[in-house]
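Handout, section B. The chain below has 701 residues.
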Amino acid sequence: MAFGQDFMLQGWYWDYDKDGCNGYSGPNWADRLNDQVTTLGEAGITHVWLPPMSRASFGACSNGYDPKDLYDLGEYGLGRTGFGTRAEVDALIASLTQGGMEAVADVVYNHRDGGAPEDNPAVKAYVETNYDGGGEQPFPSDRFRNRLPLGGTYGAGDYYIKISSKTQNFGPNRYKFYATVAGVDQPFQGRIDETEPNGGGDCGQPFDDVQLDQDLIANLYDFSGCYTDEFKLTITDNDFLASGDDLLISLTNFESGYSDHRIYDIYYQPTNGNGFNVNLADLKYETYTDFTQLPSAQGGMNFENFRPNSTNTNTTGLNGDEESLLFFYDVVQANPSSRQVYADWSKWLMNSVGIGGLRMDAVKHFPPSFVGQILDDLHDNNLTPGMVVGEFFDGDANKLAGWVNAVNASKTKSQAAVKVFDFTLREALKQACDNGGFDVREVYNRSLRDATNLTGFNVVTFVNNHDFRGPGEAVMNDPLLAYAYIMTNNQLGVPSIFYPDFFGTELPNAPQIDLSEELTQLMSIHQQYIVNATSVDYLNRFGTPYTATYNSGVSNQAMVYQLRGAPGAAEVIVAINFNDVPLDIQQTIPGVSQFGAPLFTEVTGNAPTSTVVAEGDQFQINVPAKSYAIYALTAEDVVFNAEAGTWHATIQDAVDQADSNLATDLYVRPGAYDEAVDYSAKNIHVHIGFPPTDETGDTEE
């Protein structure tokens, strides 16, 4: 489909309704969407972006960005995901397909969570040896635990566990010490706080006692020059399995950012015998990165697929856009087995699930070449997604364009049109709607189409989405004006509509407004008058050569632009008024005088007058406060019949030659070749306008 004809619905929002979650009881979301498919199709939606559908580590109340079992869409005896059951997913996608719409999967290639625990020597090496704080980031404390084998060298006795910040640069940070034994269940012993000074023997200070299965909250800052926290943990013979067990210790940051604390020593005093320092080679680091034993038995990975691994533990700093562990366990896409897992999964989504498009999450955080490789692999399997859009969460237009260009440069086979969400334009539109002091003409310069080398074929525009959910982050005032711009300027890209804006869903921190009628009308107007327009001219842009007289309103609170070359209308004039007073201007419109005194129809019903006659190149625009108007020069402007005679017409393209002996309809299209054509025949009906269309939408000739 051409980009001007496509409209995507983001078919969900953060914390969308899930049965049994947040007080909601009712149908699963996949069922909810299925009930709305007909409405969406009739409105003009062509693509529906679904939330992440895979089984998530945080369970059936998760929004899905913590993917665990990629191939479990609500089956394998585990019940629904947050989105629904596999049967409901299949039914929804079948309905979308039957309705002529593509399902767009939200695919998370960047990270994963919820695997089984496994020993991770790469993380141990990073935490204990390779990390030095020189611009590097600590490995997140909530993504590993320490394991010390019990039942052999270590058993009953007292363990003096010594913890400090490796670089001593994280003084204010708090953490939670928690120790348990794997083989013997014990009741939770509650929470205690450390008592300073507690540096223990290394500092000539006391230590804190802690029990198994007890939370101990501590700070890393030094006390009297000591940076150590020492905790005494007593284990009895009844606390573990003598045949073999594990002491498991977690050091999770508590109400603060990540820090570089670690166990640097353990002194073990057996119940019987002499004490000694634990060999730290016996202290293992476990991560939850074993995805080889999942119910689906597909999509297997282990710690070598994540950062750090055996290959890069000496070189990574866990920093920068592509290596930071911002979300769960960070996938190393350069690992061939990682690429294969995601290539196979993408093929499965398209072949077995019926997905037609891919919305790629967090593409800022992995190499663009990986996307090119995935698309080329799909091409090798005769698959080309109809929608490929990356979420590069950044307001820098050049970075967004750079990502698209890098993906296109890396793919050698796929013809998929790679797109990126236009965060730059979205920020400008928010300012236009919510900041009364913002000059809305800046919006013209902020889109990726206007600020970079990208075209609308490379862009998805939007007004609101699930990420803008904090206080003041949504477009709070008149979001319809922002939608009016992205849905009438076909040069910008594919417009994406946010589910709550279409259906009037109540959300925290956002206005509740049902725009379904207005957005449906905008889609209809676009398809009828704007689709395939070849150019846009921003008439009131900075430095415009076109004069305008403002009788009411001001130029810095108005957007006035002209679309040309659409089959449905020779000229379309759009005016959006962000001001709280009506807009009344006499605007110069280039090229309109070629049509004589053409009659424009205002097609939204918003303007006080339904038709406007252009006089020369002058055009009267009237738009209510906080509203918009769309004026189209359409086929119905002039129709007249004539007796036999000679007719001179300027025409846009060829029409059937009139038979001199037959009554004929002659459609003379405005906007023209400079070619005079003579027709002499009886009963010619001359229409200044456009031919009718057949049921397929193709022009009859």
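Note. Confidence is low (pLDDT under 50) at residues 636-664, 667-686, 688-701. Compare this with the example in section A.
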